[in-house]
Specification:
This protein is an alpha+beta fold. 18% of the residues lie in helices and 30% in strands. It has 8 helices and 30 strands. α4 crosses α8. It starts with a helix and ends with a strand. The relative contact order is 0.16.
């Protein structure tokens, strides 16, 4: 055997040399045969195996729907091979993920601090939590082994149809402590030894509002959406704050069942999902006019969306900050109205730097066709008396970004109700302390807002917040017909950015230095053009 190998090694160079010397006289060729061509069918028939006979029986007719379906299915199989093929789900990348209880989000108005919430499941067995969604902070925390937590009984809240839950370290078989030696433990002097459970304390911008406890690792239950998803249940390991003690607004109805930080920090849920390779490093939130919406992890938005880049702070990307080039009221774009702003779903209304705010409200006031007024307890200065919102000529508010990308605020006003119904409207913008503004939820209404962390861009497109895939509806009790509108947030709640909404956990925003069936068929035809290049080589 060794002699044969030696002879082969001796002959191969000689053969290669001979081929090179005669290259000009030799032409190597192959025939390219489409996988579903008549020639490919004849080739398969010549093999005569039982498997080939079954395949020939369902050979697709060219340009038929089955023909395109098979081509597309083959494409998906090739994509799965590139992403890890038949590897376990933890190595697969999905088109998008959403919480196991559904992609729906909802606002409960003043009862829950005007934030958007969604139900999530954590642990084994899984326990449900109604968490606030906050792009201005990083940590996911829930009430846990409580020493000081908000009431969890549904009787305390007029909009819930089930009790809220408390997480228990001992109650989940998949929970484990995060030690002080863990790279994401930042407790510092509060850690007495490397094996000690890692404590955490997060102080929010809201006065005396905080959450503290221990960091644990457990399972977040998700559902995979998109094409070619068979087993769509995903168990994703994440770090959770076991919130034993809450204070401030968290004892008064804001996020009583926890908060999901969606920021850029390594400890946030989107960071864990992207690092595990489950999704593209992006997610979207959509808020509609009725106070409901959607959240999808992995969503990078439609190709038609507008976008702008996130800006670093001191050389690092720490929060979702964008640069507004100018503000426009109606068809008038105002000079010296450029500013930087934090895009924060955890702040319900919008705050602008004072100099920019002054220019905007003066121009807005000039263009409104009703009388200015004031409302006791209103946090907003520019309010207008009217009994019918349809009669008010409300000028548009537009934020301009680089490359002429524009963000038209769908509804910049807030309706004010009295005993007889609608009594007036207010421009729902306030002046901010410092030169960093906050784009809050009210400006995001009517948009699918994409936080593309992979490309460090904010994307937006008008949307009615339809589902991107199969998802369940949130089990929320609808308001009975004829109920009064959601009450106005209190003055105290509106006093500062994040006054009732957690803006940036543990850190303040940094200061600036100065389809139809026809369309589906067209999609299949388009994909068919791509997969026509998948070939069979016949020598």
């Amino acid at each position: 055997m060794a002699a044969h190998r030696s002879l082969l090694l001796f002959l191969l160079p000689l053969l290669a040399s001979a081929l090179l010397r005669n290259a000009s006289a030799i032409t190597l060729s192959s025939r390219l045969i489409h996988r579903f061509s008549d020639e490919a069918k004849t080739l398969k028939a010549s093999r005569g195996t039982a498997g080939d006979s079954k395949w020939l029986a369902r050979w697709p007719q060219r340009n038929s729907m089955d023909y395109y379906h098979l081509l597309v299915h083959s494409d998906f199989q090739r994509q799965k091979m590139k992403l890890g093929g038949a590897a376990p789900s933890r190595n697969r990348r999905f088109q998008f993920l959403f919480p196991s209880e559904g992609s729906n989000t909802a606002s409960f108005g003043n009862d829950f601090g005007w934030l958007h919430y969604t139900w999530i499941d954590i642990g084994t067995p899984n326990v449900s939590f109604l968490v606030a969604l906050d792009t201005g902070s990083d940590l996911l925390w829930v009430p846990c082994d409580c020493l000081q937590c908000a009431p969890l009984s549904a009787t305390h809240y007029s909009t819930l149809d089930r009790d809220l839950n408390e997480y228990s370290l001992a109650g989940s078989s998949t929970s484990k402590h995060v030690s002080c030696s863990h790279e994401l433990c930042t407790a510092g002097p509060d850690c007495k030894g490397p094996k000690q459970p890692c404590p955490y304390t997060i102080e929010y911008l809201s006065e005396n509002t905080s959450s503290s406890g221990l960091l644990v690792e457990d399972i977040l239950h998700l559902v995979a959406g998109g094409t070619d998803v068979s087993n769509n249940s995903i168990r994703a390991p994440v770090i959770v704050g076991c919130g034993m003690r809450q204070s401030g607004g968290y004892l008064d109805g804001i996020a009583p069942d926890g908060l999901m930080g969606l920021g850029l920090g390594k400890i946030s849920v989107p960071s864990f999902l992207a690092k595990a390779g489950l999704i593209t490093n992006s997610f979207s939130m959509c808020v509609d006019e009725e106070g409901s919406g959607r959240i999808f992890f992995g969503d990078q938005g439609p190709s038609t969306q507008q976008s702008t880049s996130f800006l670093p702070s001191n050389g690092n990307y720490e929060t979702y900050i964008v640069g507004v080039e100018a503000c426009c009221i109606g068809n008038s774009c105002l000079k010296q109205t450029n500013f930087r702003a934090l895009v924060d779903s955890g702040t319900s209304f919008t705050f602008l730097p004072e100099e920019v705010y002054d220019k905007i409200v003066v121009e807005f006031d000039k263009r409104v066709n009703v009388t200015i007024t004031s409302y006791e307890g209103s946090p907003w200065k520019y309010c207008y008396k009217t009994s019918s919102q349809d009669l008010v000529k409300v000028p548009s508010v537009t934020l301009m970004f680089l490359e002429n990308n524009s963000f038209v605020v769908h509804d910049p006003i807030f309706p004010m109700y009295g005993n007889q119904g609608l009594d007036g409207i207010c421009l729902a913008i306030q002046p901010a302390d410092g030169d960093i503004g906050t784009i809050g939820q009210n400006f995001m209404t009517g948009y699918r807002t994409v936080f593309d962390r992979e490309n460090m861009k904010l994307g937006w497109s008008r949307s009615k917040c339809q589902d991107l895939g199969d998802s369940m509806r949130m089990p929320l009790t609808p308001s009975p017909k004829g109920t009064p509108p959601i009450p106005l947030p209190t003055t105290e709640q509106q006093r500062t950015p994040g006054g009732f909404a957690p803006a940036v956990a543990g850190r303040a925003p940094p200061k600036a230095s100065a389809a139809s069936s026809q369309s589906r068929f067209c999609l299949l035809r388009w994909l068919a053009l791509l997969v026509s290049f998948h070939i069979v080589f016949v020598f």
